[in-house]
């Protein structure tokens, strides 16, 4: 079971520092500052959001099994905290090569992978049917955003459809050759074409004798790896990068923060944005912290100068804590919560902190 | 002008069918000459062509009210696939933003499907009024009748909607309407002069079989026996999602050469499309499904429909077996039942209507809060608190509206002197609905147990006679599965290909023939 290994693997990084629900939120991809903080702090970015359909009850069930097998133990005076045991670590080592841990790039691709895959599926079906001059088929994906996108690409490229189909074939076949045979064939089995509909998740579980959860997790891993291969060899591919176009990573951010971001890009000040949007300054601050979490180029210096940042960092190191209240008490009075949160939200801070510890 | 149109030519042009099926042409002709029509056509006879072709031919817009959102969406998908593009389905689950976008270009459509809830909204009416509406279609018109098997309170208001929209030509369609229900439709719509096209619903190419067994295990044995040497397109109906999955698994193990899958409303959209289309495409032999499957599926060579659980009314049964043999070829319906199945439909009826306790709690809750502080109550919250199911809540909500006990902002209006009366009236209506439903269940059970000809008894309430069956009649008239040797389908297998070969095939590499 992949999920057992994922929990143990994440647990090893967290040993006694976070609760079990921390892992749950991580794998499910909770859109909270805390969860993303943790992902970066414990170097678990790659597992962030790789299991969006994970349910609390099945997660808890897995945990109970792991405890029973003595792979994890709960801390005696704080039942929420846990440790992976030596036995658990050994078991995990045996699983290591069965599970494509290294494929995942959760923080980069969660939310992107699905759009990419659905576009690709519908594209293949459309172009294959078009090649056979069959214009009445039931599309395998019926989400408006996906069908509109494929329709747009189809209209733009219809003249060269033959070449596109064969180029895409060569690109996919090149990519899939870098996978294990089962992985490649699992992926190919899902494809729908002319007069042929690919296998459903349920049918894949039967064919490959895996659970629904494992099929989903493996599929997610395969797509992340495909995306990684495509993005690191952009010059090699002509067609595949097209499927990644305009999938904005911005959809992680709430709509209201997005609106604030637009105004920020137009060089409005925080006060002006608050007035234009009729919101409180504090709310705009929340938006900025949210944006800075995802945007590596966030202009933090506009809000926090070098000296302030150093002071906050020193306090964090001293306290060995990320609790806002503790940090606030430890720094000069003129440093605001907003500034502390911005500093906390920057990823490089965490790698530094890792070294300090 | 419209009368001179050669309808066959148009049918070929727009839908690529060479000829009409029974009843379609007459209905279309009447509607085109602006007569109101009540059409009762058996399942699988192509009811929807009656308005789809008409929509293409009429100057203005055709509106279709249909109770099932999934059905509307399936139809829209199929129409778009046949290159009928000026079609849209509107329902209350759409994002308001998307709906407003559509409202802005409403005049561009020829055919608009609308859910009955949406027609209760003023905004919808305002937008539709701006359009030139030529035809108003009420699909599944039996939902209008209290005596129908699927009474939908929303449907009662359609008469006013039609009036608001300037009384366009009306077409009411149903696959299952007894004489009582037909009269009810005409009364509620207030169209005494409606032209009736009533067609017999018996299907002479379907053999009816009922088999009583002792338990579920025996059902499974029977099914395995029948399917073990026959590969024919088969549907097996269940009353719960869970059992579709269990039996699908069981049959796959027992009959490994058959391609079995399950289908129910709880599956992800992509998997639903996949299973439906694999079945259409002859990639699957057997589907274990709930009643969610089949509506809007146009597979014409289904040879066998099995009921693992019996439906709670004859009308549903007729509709579900009607998915067999649409090509006119000989087909079988087998209903399996054990005495212990009987509690299932009773239980389902209870889920559909609120209990007396729930109703009483609701009335008490409102009264107490009104007397105490008169704070506005959140109705959805109450519905959750009292554990109403969606259909239970819809019933109550409609009754509140109907008794003017609720205002436009969803606030319950409390009048002390009317309160007890209102409770009793609604409770009485509730009991009456339960009585109707229980009557339906009894009718079904009594039919299953009848000793006489099953065909004769099945259609008794719908028509006076039936046409002689083309092959075997029914299990009470001597049919046995020993005599059934249907033509088997051949399974084209993709097995044995490695992924590279398969990928090549899927991308049609080396495929030179570009026309069908």
TrEMBL record, chain B:
GO terms for cellular component: bacterial nucleoid; cytoplasm; replisome. Pfam families: DEAD, Helicase_C. One of its GO terms (molecular function) is ATP binding. Keywords: ATP-binding, DNA-binding, Helicase, Hydrolase, Nucleotide-binding. InterPro entries: DEAD/DEAH_box_helicase_dom, DNA/RNA_helicase_DEAH_CS, DNA_helicase_ATP-dep_RecQ, Helicase_ATP-bd, Helicase_C-like, P-loop_NTPase. The keyword ATP-binding applies. The keyword DNA-binding applies. Residues 218-383 form the Helicase C-terminal domain. Residues 28-195 form the Helicase ATP-binding domain. Coiled coil: none annotated. SMART domains: DEXDc (SM00487), HELICc (SM00490). GO terms for biological process: DNA recombination; DNA repair. Its EC number is 3.6.4.12. NCBIfam families: recQ_fam. This is RecQ family ATP-dependent DNA helicase. It comes from Ornithinibacillus caprae.
């Amino acid at each position: 079971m992949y999920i057992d290994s994922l929990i143990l693997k994440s647990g090893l990084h967290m040993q006694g520092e976070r609760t079990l629900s921390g892992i749950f939120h991580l794998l499910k991809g909770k859109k909270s500052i805390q969860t993303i903080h943790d992902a970066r702090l414990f170097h678990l970015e790659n597992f962030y959001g790789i299991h969006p359909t994970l349910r609390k009850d099945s997660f808890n069930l897995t945990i109970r099994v792991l405890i029973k097998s003595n792979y994890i133990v709960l801390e005696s005076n704080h039942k929420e905290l846990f440790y992976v045991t030596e036995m658990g670590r050994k078991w995990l080592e045996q699983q290591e090569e069965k599970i494509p841990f290294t494929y995942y790039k959760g923080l980069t691709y969660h939310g992107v992978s699905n759009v990419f895959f659905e576009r690709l599926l519908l594209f293949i079906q459309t172009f294959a049917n078009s090649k056979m001059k069959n214009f009445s088929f039931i599309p395998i994906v019926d989400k408006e955003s996906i069908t509109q996108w494929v329709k747009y690409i189809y209209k733009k490229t219809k003249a060269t459809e033959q070449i596109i189909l064969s180029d895409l074939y060569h690109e996919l076949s090149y990519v899939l050759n870098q996978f294990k045979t089962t992985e490649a064939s699992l992926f190919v089995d899902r494809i729908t074409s002319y007069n042929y509909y690919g296998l459903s998740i349920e049918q894949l579980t039967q064919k490959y004798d895996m659970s629904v959860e494992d099929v989903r997790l493996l599929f997610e891993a395969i797509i992340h790896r495909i995306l990684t291969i495509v993005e690191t060899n952009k010059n090699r591919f002509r067609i595949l990068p097209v499927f990644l176009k305009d999938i904005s990573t911005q959809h992680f951010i709430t709509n209201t923060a997005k609106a604030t971001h637009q105004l920020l890009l137009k060089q409005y000040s925080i006060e002006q944005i608050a007035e234009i949007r009729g919101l409180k300054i504090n709310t705009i601050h929340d938006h900025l912290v949210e944006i800075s979490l995802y945007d590596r180029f966030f202009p933090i210096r506009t809000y926090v100068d070098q000296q302030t940042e150093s002071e906050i960092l020193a306090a964090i190191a001293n306290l060995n804590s990320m609790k806002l209240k503790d940090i606030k008490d430890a720094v000069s009075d003129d440093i605001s919560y907003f500034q502390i949160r911005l500093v906390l939200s920057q990823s490089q801070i965490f790698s530094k902190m890792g070294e300090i510890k | 002008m419209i009368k001179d149109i050669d309808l066959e030519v148009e049918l070929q042009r727009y839908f690529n069918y060479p000829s009409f099926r029974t009843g379609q042409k007459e209905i279309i002709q009447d509607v085109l000459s602006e007569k109101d029509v009540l059409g009762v056509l058996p399942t699988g006879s192509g009811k929807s062509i009656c308005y789809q072709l008409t929509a293409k031919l009429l100057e203005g817009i055709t509106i279709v009210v249909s109770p099932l959102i999934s059905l509307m969406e399936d139809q829209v998908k199929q129409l778009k696939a046949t290159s009928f593009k000026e079609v849209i389905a509107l329902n209350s689950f759409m994002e308001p933003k998307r709906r407003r976008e559509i409202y802005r270009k409403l005049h561009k459509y020829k055919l608009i499907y609308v859910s009955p809830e949406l027609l209760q909204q003023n905004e919808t009416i305002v937008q539709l009024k701006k359009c030139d509406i030529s035809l108003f279609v009420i699909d599944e018109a039996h939902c209008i009748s209290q005596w129908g098997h699927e009474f939908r309170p929303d449907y009662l208001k359609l008469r006013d909607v039609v009036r608001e929209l300037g009384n366009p030509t009306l077409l009411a369609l149903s696959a299952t309407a007894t004489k009582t229900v037909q009269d009810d439709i005409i009364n509620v719509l207030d169209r005494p002069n409606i032209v009736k096209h009533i067609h017999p619903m018996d299907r002479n190419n379907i053999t009816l079989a009922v088999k009583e067994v002792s338990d579920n295990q025996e059902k499974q044995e029977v099914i395995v026996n029948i399917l073990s040497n026959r590969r024919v397109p088969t549907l097996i109906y269940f009353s719960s999602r869970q059992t579709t999955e269990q039996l699908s698994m069981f049959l796959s193990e027992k009959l490994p050469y058959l391609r079995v899958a399950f289908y129910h409303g709880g599956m992800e959209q992509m998997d639903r499309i996949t299973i439906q289309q694999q079945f259409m495409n002859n990639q699957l032999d057997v589907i274990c499904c709930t009643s969610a499957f089949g509506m809007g599926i146009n597979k014409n060579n289904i040879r066998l429909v099995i009921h693992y659980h019996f439906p709670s009314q004859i009308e549903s049964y007729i509709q579900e077996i009607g998915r067999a043999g649409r090509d006119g070829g000989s087909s079988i319906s087998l209903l399996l039942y054990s005495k212990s199945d009987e509690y299932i439909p009773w239980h389902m009826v209870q889920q559909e209507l609120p209990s007396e306790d729930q109703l009483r709690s609701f009335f008490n809750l409102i009264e107490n809060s009104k007397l105490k502080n008169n704070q506005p109550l959140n109705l959805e919250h109450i519905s959750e608190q009292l554990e109403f199911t969606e259909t239970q809540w819809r019933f109550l909500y409609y009754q509140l509206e109907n008794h003017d006990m609720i205002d436009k902002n969803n606030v319950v209006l409390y009048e002390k002197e009317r309160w007890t009366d209102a409770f009793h009236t609604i409770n009485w209506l509730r009991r009456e609905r339960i009585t109707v439903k229980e009557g339906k269940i009894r009718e079904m059970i009594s039919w299953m147990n009848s000793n006489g000809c099953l065909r004769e008894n099945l259609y008794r309430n719908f028509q006076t006679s039936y046409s002689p069956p083309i092959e075997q009649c029914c299990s009470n008239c001597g049919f046995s599965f020993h005599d059934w040797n249907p033509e088997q389908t051949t399974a084209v297998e993709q097995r044995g290909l490695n992924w590279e070969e398969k990928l090549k095939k899927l991308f049609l590499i080396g495929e030179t023939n570009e026309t069908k």
